[in-house]
Amino acid sequence: MRQSTLLLNTLRESPAEAEVASHELLLRGGFIRQLAAGIYTYLPLGRRVLRKIEQIIREEMELTGAQEILMPALQPADLWKESGRHNVYGPELMRLSDRNEREFVLGPTHEEVITALVRDEINSYRKLPVTLYQIQTKFRDERRPRFGLLRGREFVMKDAYSFDTDWEGLDRSYRKMYGAYERIFERMGLNYRAVEADAGAIGGEGETHEFMALADIGEDTIVSCTCCDYAANIEAAVGRDGAESVVPSSEVLPREKIQTPGLRTIDELVAGLQVEAQQIIKTLIYKADQQMVAVLVRGDHQVNELKVMKYLNTENLEIVDSGALQELGLAPAGSIGPCGLHIPVLVDQEVASMSEGITGGNEADVHEIHVRPGRDFKLDQVGDFRNVVEGDHCLNCQQGRLKFSRGIEMGHIFKLGTKYSEKLQAHYLNSSGKKEPMIMGCYGIGISRLLSAIAEQCHDDRGMIWPMSVAPFQVHLILISSKNEQQTQAADRLYAELAQQGIEVLYDDRNESAGVKFKDSELIGIPLRITLGKNAEQGEVELTVRKNGHREFVSIDEVVNLVKEKVKG
């Protein structure tokens, strides 16, 4: 491709809307352009990278035996109502009606559509197992699109779905896909971790893993062990308290009410009562579907709402605001305690193990001290209801401590079980002629997200440094002077020879200064650069490796073979 004909406009200044390095570089390098908040056009360079990513994914999907299909983005809302997700998915689901007032949604995912398809196409165990996948545009009405392609309202995704006759078959399908994901991200040169995760709105009945690109700007917190290979998203992470216990007094004292005017938050109580946060028991009131529940955690811990939802088997969980507390006849927030509450009380296991604590007194500006779990409030429902904190003990190896890092979610795999097949009647006849629900798995990769994740990890202060496997071109051929006939002839000949060898070349034949060309080259980040300048008269060109800046002068006659070796790796 001659750069003089390429739709490519680089930007010298950082765009105002760019919040992170990947967003800035993809805009400045002419890979993408924003149409509206969270909606982007992929320009030729960006589209070439996407195609490379898609090709790697297709190759690895086909190695697992998965078959590619393409499903509609526009989906009947009735399917979502049949699965029960039409209301559960929330405001992020884009909903619309046609001219006949029939309801549709723009698909953020395709569990309903694929299940209905397989239900209608497969009815016998002889046609199972099967795994189907597609690469397609998805839609999500993000409240606050940000970070460019990392959180958008329209995005490109690979989603695959496996159908098996039993759980052992699902285990095999899941392991195949897990291995394929590892190969995909390794081929793209990514630094990543596979972590245990929560199924979220997709749901399911078994294990689930997220694949995270390690990056400081990641919106997800990765919890890992300092001694073993345990890793999990913070939403799913478990641990044992690693803080030194604050032992108040060995003397058993009756609980006692004290006046605490103006002390409502944990920080205010710590300062006002001269105590440690871990001596305080927080009581939070939630509405779980239509039921009110209280959740107790230590003052230095935070409630993990997903763990609470999973324990209660509920689809909606909302913290009750101060107005609703008053309507329920409860004390103001910050003064509520577990003693005497007439609603279910979920007690975090770290609270249950406390000898005593400080709680709200269920009156405005009143707290209680010497409150003993089990004596002053019941321990009927004890479980893990908190987020882990750094320094917690690892439950996997019993030796290490948990540490935090940040990550960008690139892929997520789920064991769905019969969640969708039962609701949508996707059955097969077994060898005895009996109807059984298909056992499903779901496997997604955010392709446009990968574009940003790679950019976030592979750049320096001058621009992009694309890995060879996904680079828009493999070689950037720079002609220093388009007015020099000898240089031009040599560059044209070299361009043709590289193309004949199957090397992807971007040929900068523009009538621009050398400085402009080099700055653009470094910004675009093509792995290899051949500079054809005054040394062409001696039959030499300069070969530069973008990743490490290594430069060498080589013979024009030898450079093609040398490039072929470097491209092959």
UniProtKB/TrEMBL annotation:
It is found in: Cytoplasm. PROSITE patterns: AA_TRNA_LIGASE_II (PS50862). Coiled coil: none annotated. CDD domains: ProRS-INS (cd04334), ProRS_anticodon_short (cd00861), ProRS_core_prok (cd00779). Residues 38-467 form the Aminoacyl-transfer RNA synthetases class-II family profile domain. The keyword Protein transport does not apply. GO terms for molecular function: ligase activity. Its EC number is 6.1.1.15. Keywords: Aminoacyl-tRNA synthetase, ATP-binding, Cytoplasm, Ligase, Nucleotide-binding, Protein biosynthesis. InterPro entries: aa-tRNA-synt_IIb, aa-tRNA-synth_II, aa-tRNA-synth_II/BPL/LPL, Anticodon-bd, Anticodon-bd_dom_sf, Pro-tRNA-ligase_IIa, Pro-tRNA-synth_IIa_bac-type, Pro-tRNA-Synthase_IIa_type1. It is an enzyme of class 6 (ligase). Its main location: cytoplasm. It holds the Pfam family tRNA-synt_2b. It comes from the Bacteria. It catalyses: tRNA(Pro) + L-proline + ATP = L-prolyl-tRNA(Pro) + AMP + diphosphate. PANTHER family: MITOCHONDRIAL RIBOSOME PROTEIN L39/PROLYL-TRNA LIGASE FAMILY MEMBER, PROLINE--TRNA LIGASE. Consists of three domains: the N-terminal catalytic domain, the editing domain and the C-terminal anticodon-binding domain. Catalyzes the attachment of proline to tRNA(Pro) in a two-step reaction: proline is first activated by ATP to form Pro-AMP and then transferred to the acceptor end of tRNA(Pro). As ProRS can inadvertently accommodate and process non-cognate amino acids such as alanine and cysteine, to avoid such errors it has two additional distinct editing activities against alanine. One activity is designated as 'pretransfer' editing and involves the tRNA(Pro)-independent hydrolysis of activated Ala-AMP. NCBIfam families: PRK09194.1 (NF006625), proS_fam_II (TIGR00409). Homodimer. Belongs to the class-II aminoacyl-tRNA synthetase family. ProS type 1 subfamily. This is Proline--tRNA ligase. It comes from Paenibacillus motobuensis.
